[in-house]
Structure formats: structure tokens, C-alpha cells
């Protein structure tokens, strides 16, 4: 259903008494206002908007069209509960010159006012997109990109601005749906609609679009995008979910998506614009025919049928040089020659795989490239491992630190303020034989790092079991397909080498796809290399243990996958994952080492009374800083009284623990301490037996024989043994040196 709401001024109801007092001029003004308002209402859609609503997972989803951002090609103001997101789609009038790809940009903007916060830092305004915002942008981008025309070169920007967040309604959902709706109703060419649904798993029951609190404790975080008939994107993190259960969840989300698509169809029917024509950048058919005459299909097959990427690249370079020489006088063809050669390679590789069942490197359809694994390849770091699959090679280094070094998060999720495990992925240009300066991690690097992190989180020990912050960094030494999954394998081994007691090893592998003219004409490939990824239709990454899936990321270049393809891809990746775990990784390192390495910090945890935290910290941190200065350790204290002492020297750590216990212990008569003389008076000496803790030794309690002056026996800084006598009348600790038991002296 929808409602039409005119933008018109409100007219007050005027009583008879007031009416008599109103001047003729004022009456004319009111009449004119009314006439203008009615005229605006009749005039058209520029002064009114349409509102559409549906029930989605027990909450109301409302879409306002024509209310705001009217100059965008398409705009939808999305309301899901109290969560509000403005989604817009805009396109340039003309194609961007000199490019051979579709220039799509997807933005997900987290406004801190949406959760009633002022941004941190000096600027006090939103700046660089958070990691979560980048990942959400990628999840919106991946299902929508294949639905735009392949020969479309106009710049398109999909922008999603989160303006209000209801903890019961995840803002990612209205942003994903809003991007699809704003594009569908715009005049931008788009083969939609598509819809996206999230699924959680609590106590064995699936939950559609779980709240932020539910997502935090869910055993499954699944996002599925669909068109009318097929699944087009899958993103998942799970606590070792069995394959059949994962498939059930995927198609539960797919069914929900069909209801949303029907809702979008109604919106498009009412508000959709006619799609604009565009300048096609398709390669002329005459050019293809001319290329085939110069480079026959058999010659192209020989060029791409090579095991090593460098050899293939050299073969294609020689073909390119020959064609550029032949077409030197045809500038129009030279401009699109690179795209034509790409398309020729693509058709050749796809035909070889689908029709001849031949892969470019000669492998069988379900064969994995040669594998190798080793640990401890980098000295002095806390843990390291290298995993190699064909020409894909990843080295992961693990670093351990106190929990105080966990990453703090500043975002819209009030339930996630920090994370203890961080996985970072780097992709330098030399890994693919190219040269370009490093400008920091891009969206791809952030996405690959997050995928590996998601895959490993389910098997990590709890903070109580292993009180460390953990960082793994995957360095790509060589890349030829599925480096993200290789980083999962390398990271698992690196964690075990560092002594992190993970519950089970995790491996990852990717499956590819080549499709024909019909849904039944397809071939699923195990362990795709770069060429099969570039020219194929799917990159289906699955990570998990022997017992179940921990992460999925599926990207496609076609308009969706049928259920048989999804099921076969999941089955193939399970078989490959089992082989990698059993035959390679577990033979390299079978289980986590029993202790952390010699260069890793050691951590001891003790529990104190939370009411005595202030005693340990001291006034303005004086006491705890004194302990740190004296022992060289790091000390973290949580609000519940858990104290973590971190250091490299066990003796120093033991001393810090002793001092903390001394400070927090209720003293009794008879306890013996070692202290330092910090003050001398005529009547005795004050001994500091722990930072911030002092007691007095009366002059009569210093020696068994009588002394006239304290200075005759003690000087400032002396270390002495004392026994506690209890508290004096003033509540101070009273000590004795002469009464220390002989066995303690």
C-alpha cells in the first residue's frame, strides 16, 4: 500500500468570533495560500511523495519515494523500525573516456549522530570510512555490479547515508535494499530488481534480519542477495555450521528475498522512470573477425594453455604486439584492441573448460594445485608460517600483546566497542609482477583481511583461556588466484606456531564456474587460478574445519546461481578443505604449541577484590606506575578485578604479582614482609612494604638490645624484613624487626 502526502502549508481552523475580526486583506491572503496549496497538489509529483510499506521479519519497512534528493537519478528514504537510511543512485550523462570497465562506486556513510555520538579526534566530524563501512559497501557492490550492462561506461555512484539507528533494525538491510530500489526506479540501465536478507542462528533456530544484539551472539551471520530466480551473492561467518544447514539457511533467505522483490516491483510500477539510452562500448564484431584471421583459435589456445602466469602473459604480449602492428592505421580499432584481446582470451578459455574439459594449466576439474606448508620461517617473531598453492604464496606472522592493545572501534554498533583478534592482509604489486607505489590497504585488502578474520574467530580461545590480544598479518608473496583462502591456511599454522591454543585448524579453498547457454550447462572448478577467476563466472570461497563452515564469500559475474550449482560448489570445497587440512597443514604442525615463544610476552592473571582496584592504582596512578617502573611489566585491570601482568622476564612478573597481592591483602598479625626504609623519625622508622603501603617500626622494635638513635641501625633505602604486629590506635600498620621469626630472617 502507499500514501500520497502533499507538501502544503497547514491552515488554522478559524472560529466565528475570530472570523469577524479578520480584515479583508487577511482573508485574501488565506485564500491565496489555500489556492496555491491546492494548485501545488494538483500540479504534479514534484510537491508530493509516495510511501510504500511492507512487514519484513516482524518489523515495518517503509520506503519514501520523491520526498528528498529529487535531483538524483533515483532516491529512496528507507525506514526500518526507527533505522533511517537515505539511498541514492546517480549516473553521469556521458561515458568516461579511456576506460575498459564499468566505473561503479558504492558508499556506505556512517553518521555518528545516528546513534547520538559526536565523532572522536580533533576534527569532531566523520572522516575516513570505517572498516565496517567499507565491508558493507562491498556487500552492496558485489550483487549489483553484474546486473548493470557489461558495455556501460557511465560513472554510477550508489550512496547510502545512515541517519538513524534502531538497535533492533540493522542499518545494513535498508542500505542494501535502498541501493537496489533507488537504482530500479532511476533511469539508469539495470537488470533488477534484487533483494538482500540476513539470517542468524540462535538456539538452533534461524532468525531473519537479526538485531545487533542477536548478531553478536548468533552462531551464524549470513547475508544472501537474490534476483527473481537465483542467488547472486553469499557472505557468511559461522561457528562450524554443517554444509546442509548452511544450504538450508541460504535458501530460507532466498525465499524471503522473493517477497521483497514483489514489493520492489510495486514501487517500480508506481515510480519507475524509463531507462535512458547510452553509448555502447562493445567491441565491433568486425574487429573480432579480423583478429581471428590473424590469430586463429588454435593459436590462442596454445597461448593461454600454460601452467605459469609469466609464460601466458608473454604469449599474450606477443599476440598484442602483432595485432597492434597489423592495425596500426586503424585508430578506432586500436582504442578497443585491449578489450577485444581480453574477450578473445575469455571465449577461448571458457570453451576449453566447458566443452573440452581442459584447464589452462592442464589440471583435472577437481584437482588442487601443488601444495606446500612450513612454519617458523621468520626468526624472533611470535609465530610465522608460509602456505603455497601453485603460484599463490602467503606468509602470515602472528603477534601477541596484552589485552589493552585490542583494537578500539568507533562506529554505530554499540555492542562492539573493541576487538581482540585482528587479521590484516597485504597485496603488494610485486606479487603479480607489477610495479606501483604502496598507498595503504584498499577495499579489496580490507575485505580479504575481514574474510580471513571471520573464518578464524570461531576457533580462537576465550580471553579467560588465553588473555592476549592477537594480530595476524598475511603478506602476499605471490598471487595467482585465491590468496584470501591461502591466508586462512597460513594464519592457522602461524597461530599454532605462536602457541595460541586454537580449538581446531581452519583451511580455505575457492571454487569457480563456467556456464553455457542453459542453466544445466555448467562446470564447477576446484581451486581456481587467476585466469579462471578473470574469465569465469564465479569465485566461491569457503573456509572451515573438519566439522563445518566458518566463512563463505561468493562473487559472481552472471545473473545468479541455481541451487544445484551452490550445492556442488559447497560439496567441492568441503572435499578440498579436508584434503588440505589432513595432507598438508596437519602434517606441517599437528597442534598448537603448549606455550608461547621466547620472544612473545608472558601473561599472568590474578583476581582481586574489585573494591581494592583503587588501592592498586593509587592516587593519580602513582602506585601502579611505581610497580611498572620497578618491574618493567605491563599491568591491565578490568572493572571486575581481573589483573593481567605482562612481561618477558618471569622473575619481574612474579615480583609484580607479589606486590599486587600485598597491596590487596587484608593484613594480619604475624605476616612477614620485605620493605624499604623510606623515612626516619626520632621515635622509629617507616618501612614501605609495597608501593603506597607503609608501616612504622618503633625504635623499641628495631633491635633486641636497646638503641638510642634509629640512625645507629638504619639508613634511608635499607631493605629490611619486618613482621606485622597489627594496627596501632591511629589505624596504622605496626611492624617489628626484632620479632621476625628466625626461619624468615
From TrEMBL:
Please provide the Gene Ontology terms (biological process) for this protein.
mRNA catabolic process; regulation of DNA-templated transcription; RNA processing
Under the heading InterPro entries, the entry gives: ExoRNase_PH_dom1, ExoRNase_PH_dom2, ExoRNase_PH_dom2_sf, KH_dom, KH_dom_type_1, KH_dom_type_1_sf, KIX_dom, NA-bd_OB-fold
- According to its UniProt record, this protein's enzyme class is transferase
Task: Provide the alphabetized UniProt keywords.
Answer: Cytoplasm, Magnesium, Metal-binding, Nucleotidyltransferase, RNA-binding, Transferase
Which reaction is this enzyme known to catalyze?
RNA(n+1) + phosphate = RNA(n) + a ribonucleoside 5'-diphosphate
Annotated localization: Cytoplasm
What cofactor does this chain's UniProt record say it requires?
A: Mg(2+)
Main subcellular localization, coarse class? cytoplasm
- What do the Gene Ontology cellular component annotations say? cytosol
Which residues participate in Mg(2+) binding? Answer: 533, 539
GO MF, one term, reads: magnesium ion binding
Residue stretches making up the S1 motif domain? 670-738
Q: Which HAMAP family match?
A: PNPase
* Role: Involved in mRNA degradation. Catalyzes the phosphorolysis of single-stranded polyribonucleotides processively in the 3'- to 5'-direction.
Name recorded for this polypeptide:
Polyribonucleotide nucleotidyltransferase
